[in-house]
TrEMBL record:
GO terms assigned for molecular function: carbohydrate binding
UniProt-listed Gene3D superfamilies: 2.60.120.200
Keywords: Lectin
Source taxonomy: Eukaryota, Metazoa, Ecdysozoa, Nematoda, Chromadorea
The keyword Nucleotide-binding appears for this protein: no
Organism whose genome encodes this protein: Caenorhabditis japonica
Annotated Galectin domain residues: 36-170, 178-308
Name of protein: Galectin
InterPro entries per record: ConA-like_dom_sf, Galectin-like, Galectin_CRD
């Protein structure tokens, strides 16, 4: 059998930064495990990603399984067999490791990752025709070859010493640049969520918000300058880019790492979050409700884009 693990990298624990926990980021609400959910819609498509985020509540660990059905646990009175676990990702806190397995033919591998009780976690599984890409704390730790077609996956199951902020399936394979209309416009209270992966040698990427021919807000992350620049262009007049930031992290992105951006339209300004940590703000130049479309461009792979 071909090896299930194409690459294993050690994972250094990043500097701990507390995420913002309020109604904007949604981290003020959690839900308990065991968590079992059927995948919405049709079978998985290449480019789709599972994103599981939460925090550790105990000292033993937790598992994230992609299964072929809802039979994921048996008690003494049950008769029958468990559905196949087509990908099993088990975080073992005492051993400081993440074990990867597909519980069909017994092979197993692991990567180092140290969590402790109270730590937040971010695990992402991106689907392709022949393999999964597995990200832990935004870093690619393994390419995991499919044992069976990913179309056999029907459920996600999470259990163990954790509480969850979110479990979601995002996106597809996007063409760049990405352009989309904003139904109902980007009025105060709306949120744009963007999940992506930076290229191996990125120069920059940008998100432009359009109101007709005007650009009320542009956020551009320059990997060369190690800065996040914000500006606008109204009636042909561009503002000087702003580069100030909050907190201790000057530039929150790295090559080949996954990341999230959240842009929230507050009453008088935009709030920009990277990985649910407030990074900067930008005052409205014209009413946010005039923004009718957006464009995303640059040296990234889009995982998901949605507006609430």
């Amino acid at each position: 059998m071909a090896s299930i693990l194409r690459r294993i990298l050690s994972v250094r624990k990043p500097k701990k930064v507390l995420t913002r926990k309020d109604s904007i980021t949604g981290r003020n609400h959690t839900f308990e495990v065991p968590y079992l959910s059927r995948l919405d819609g049709n079978q998985l498509q290449p480019g789709q990603s599972l994103i599981a985020r939460g925090y550790v509540t105990g000292s033993e660990g937790f598992i994230v399984n992609l299964t072929s059905g809802p039979n994921v646990e048996l008690d003494e009175e049950d008769v029958g067999e468990l559905d196949d676990r087509l990908l099993a990702l088990r975080v073992d806190l005492p051993k400081g490791k993440v074990f990867l397995n597909a519980c069909i033919n017994g092979q197993q591998a692991f990567v180092k990752q140290s969590y402790k009780e109270g730590d937040e976690f971010d695990i992402r599984i991106r689907c392709f025709e022949k393999h999964f890409e597995i990200y832990v704390e935004h870093k690619l730790i393994a390419n995991f070859k499919h044992y069976v077609p990913m179309s056999n996956i029907s459920h996600i199951y999470v259990t163990g010493d954790v509480r969850l902020y979110a479990v979601s399936w995002e996106g597809k394979l996007y063409n760049m640049p990405y352009t989309a209309d904003i139904p109902g416009n980007f009025y105060v209270g709306r949120k744009l969520f963007v999940s992506a992966i930076a290229d191996a040698k990125p120069k920059d990427f940008s998100i432009d918000f359009f109101a007709g021919d005007d650009v009320p807000f542009r956020v551009c992350a320059s990997f060369v300058q190690k800065k996040v620049l914000r500006s606008s262009e109204i009636s042909g007049s561009a503002t000087t880019p702003e580069t100030t930031y909050e907190g201790k992290i000057k530039f929150p992105l790295k090559a080949k790492r996954s990341f999230d951006i959240l842009v929230y339209a507050a009453d008088d300004k935009f709030l920009v979050f990277f990985n649910d940590v407030l990074y900067c703000t930008f005052d409205h130049r014209i009413p946010a409700a005039s923004i009718e479309r957006l464009q995303i461009n640059g040296d990234i792979q889009l995982i998901g884009v949605h507006i609430k």
